[in-house]
Amino acid sequence: MPGFEEIARHTRMLRTDSRTCGTVYLIEENGRRLLIDAGDGQAKLDFAPDICILTHGHFDHTRGVKPDWEKVLMHPAEFRFGGPHIEVPKNAEKNPMKEMKFGSHLLEFFHTPGHTDGSICILDRKTGLLFSGDTKFAGGSYGRTDLGGSDEEMERSLALIEKIPYKLLCPGHGELEEKNEA
Ligand SMILES: [Zn+2]
After folding, report:
1. What fold, for 4-174?
2. In the predicted model, is pLDDT for residue 118 greater than 60?
C-alpha cells in the first residue's frame, strides 16, 4: 500500500503532504481491511475497505469515503445537526458503538463529544492504540470546540480519555504520542 507507514501489528497510517487532510489509519489482517477515517480525498486509497469507521463528520476525515464502500460507520449524533464543515457520506450508517472484533483485534468505542457532538475515540485492545480523531492531539492539545462543539463536553471527554488504558495516541492530525504513565 503506497504511502502507508507501519505503526503497530497489522496497523498502518497514511499521512499526506496536505496540512488539512486528516490522517488515515488502516488495520489489515488476513486480507480484510478496516479503515479509520478516510481523509479529505487527497489520501490515495486504491482499495475499498471492508469497514470504514469515522471518528467524526468533518470533511477532512469523511470526504475520502467512496460511494461503493460497503460499511461506513459514524456516531449517531453526527447525523442529527449539520454543524459547520460536517459532511456525512451518503452511505454512512449509525455506529452501534458496541465492541467490534476484527480478526484478532478488539475495538472498543468511546463517545467523546466536544470537537463535534458525535466525536468518538477507538481503542484497539490488542495493540493499545487509541485513535482519537480531532478530540485529543499530541503535546496536550485538543480539537477546536468552535466548530459545533462545546468546551464543557471537551473537558469531560479529555478526562475520560485519561482513564483509557492505551499505549499510543493516534490522532486525526499531527504526531503520534506514547501515553505518559504518571
Ligand atoms: Zn474535525
Report:
1. Metallo-beta-lactamase; Chain A (3.60.15)
2. yes
Q: Are 27 and 105 in contact (CB under 8 A)?
A: yes
Ligand 1 centre to CA of 85 (Å) is 8
- pLDDT at residue 2, rounded to an integer: 67
Please give the pLDDT value at position 169: 98
pLDDT tens, position by position, 31-82: 999 999 999 999 889 999 999 999 999 999 999 999 999 999 999 999 987 7
List the 51-53 sheet strands across, edge first: 4-8, 11-14, 24-29, 32-36, 51-53, 72-74, 92-94
Query: What is the Å distance from ligand 1's center to 166 Cα?
Result: 21
Q: Indicate the average pLDDT of the chain.
A: 94
CA of 117 to the centre of ligand 1 (A): 11
Q: Which DSSP string corresponds to 41-96?
A: S-S---S--SEEE-S--BHHHHTT--TT-S-EEE-GGGGTS--TTB---TTEEE--
Q: Residue 30 Cα, ligand 1 centroid: separation in angstroms?
A: 31
Domain locations along the chain: 4-174
* Spacing, Cα 41 to ligand 1 middle (Å): 15
User: Residue 32 C-alpha to ligand 1 middle, in angstroms?
Assistant: 27
